């Protein structure tokens, strides 16, 4: 209600009356006020309300109206309401009978017979925006600046929503610009940090320190996990074949230590995740990783690509042959199953792929492939029952004939 102001009952120069009707009551938001049983006039630039006992009128500039809605009354009601969603009060507006209002909309209580016509005339006047013409620009009821209009958004309405979206987009754009500036600075500093980490790790390896071997290894691993300081890119190399060869060298150098730590074998899917994590923003596709790893089998790399019969592909140490892998898995089976004589109760216990994975720190898929490889080479036997698939060490080859 703070948008209403006292004004003379006469029209301003150039102002045209559009529609007049009786107004049952004025509302501040959804709250009733003491202004009732007056006469309402819609002009080309204002909304005027006057009571017969008062010489002055209440005025409201249509320039601050952002949306006009019609609110029908109840079944037993004799009228309805027009809801006007408003922006902030113009700084140059004359004083009025009301103080500051927390509401961003007002309501006009009208009879049913006047409701539709008055709504149409109000919408037309708000749409025409006559107050923006030259003859009204210098009047006290001229439109406020765009900055003032956005100080207090409307409760609802298309214009209020559009303004909120525009402000949010501007804030987002500024945030993105600042973020990319910070990212550029971070990338510039990251290369120097990675080089420094490599230097520290090399010194720890070459010099004797008071730190234990485990602590040195862990610290070195943390430093190297910062990433690759100068990852190879297709644009820098040019040729696709050369790019895959350079990428193969990068993968081999970066992941050799990690592959050794997990037992000498790593799933190709994990290789893809680890190398992309090390490369940071310079991501590579699964196809490029697979092609680069396939080159390792025909070149002198510490790692090479191996495919199981099931089609599962892994990256493993070149020094790790099938015989060694089968022997290590056989030892795990014997230790868990209790040897040739079984456990303390004389019974053998089978080992599933999940159990082997927990014992050896392997993914479930890789653990199963190792058991199947042992079976294929005669080092293990399977027992498939209602309890699932389990494997036992093969002692038949040790029986005397």
From TrEMBL:
Claim: S-adenosyl-L-methionine is one of the keywords in the record: no
Location(s) in or outside the cell: Cytoplasm; Endosome
BP GO terms, sorted: protein transport to vacuole involved in ubiquitin-dependent protein catabolic process via the multivesicular body sorting pathway
Main localization (coarse): cytoplasm
Transport keyword on record: yes
Gene Ontology molecular function terms on file: phosphatidylinositol-3-phosphate binding; ubiquitin binding
UniProt keyword terms in alphabetical order: Cytoplasm, Endosome, Protein transport, Transport
One GO location term (cellular component): late endosome membrane
PROSITE patterns referenced in this protein's UniProt entry, alphabetically: GLUE (PS51495)
Residue stretches making up the GLUE N-terminal domain: 1-138
Signal peptide: none
Membrane spanning residue stretches: none
Assembly information from the UniProt record: Component of the endosomal sorting complex required for transport II (ESCRT-II).
UniProt family annotation: Belongs to the VPS36 family.
Main function: Component of the ESCRT-II complex (endosomal sorting complex required for transport II), which is required for multivesicular body (MVB) formation and sorting of endosomal cargo proteins into MVBs.
Protein name: Vacuolar protein-sorting-associated protein 36
Organism (species): Hirondellea gigas
